[in-house]
From TrEMBL:
InterPro entries: Cro/C1-type_HTH (IPR001387), Lambda_DNA-bd_dom_sf (IPR010982). This is Helix-turn-helix domain-containing protein. GO terms for molecular function: DNA binding. It comes from Corallococcus exiguus. Residues 14-67 form the HTH cro/C1-type domain. Pfam families: HTH_3 (PF01381). It comes from the Bacteria.
């Protein structure tokens, strides 16, 4: 593995992630890898597979060239629109990740509990 390339990719990923106000866990979940693995990628300790690299570019709204440090930032024409939950807080995204792992009975209990709170105004 070329250390310089891994460091360049990790640095570009970190900059794009923070620009989008996402946590490492948010990005890891969206590209389908463990958050620990994503952390190693961001620190420049590993390179992703081609499929993971493409998903990373889409989620972070950066071009492959930008991620690899080959050219200045340009519009990414092939990337999909970011998911609608980008504006949510990190706490809410963490809660949603946890809720997705609950069994049906626990989800019902959580739903009853949540219904007792007042909605945001």
């Amino acid at each position: 593995m070329e250390k310089t390339l891994a460091s360049r990719l990790g640095g570009a990923a970190r900059v794009a992630r923070t620009r989008l106000n996402l946590t490492q866990a948010d990005v890891a979940e969206r590209i389908g890898i463990a958050s620990e693995v994503y952390g190693r990628l961001e620190r420049g300790h590993m390179l992703p597979s081609i499929q993971t690299f493409r998903r990373l570019c889409v989620v972070l709204s950066i071009s492959a060239d930008e991620a690899l440090g080959l050219k200045p930032s340009q519009d990414v024409k092939w990337a999909a629109e970011p998911p609608s939950d980008y504006g949510e807080s990190a706490e809410l995204r963490r809660l949603l990740r946890r809720a997705k792992q609950l069994d049906r009975g626990s989800v019902r209990i959580l739903s009853v509990l949540a219904s007792q709170f007042k909605p945001r105004s």
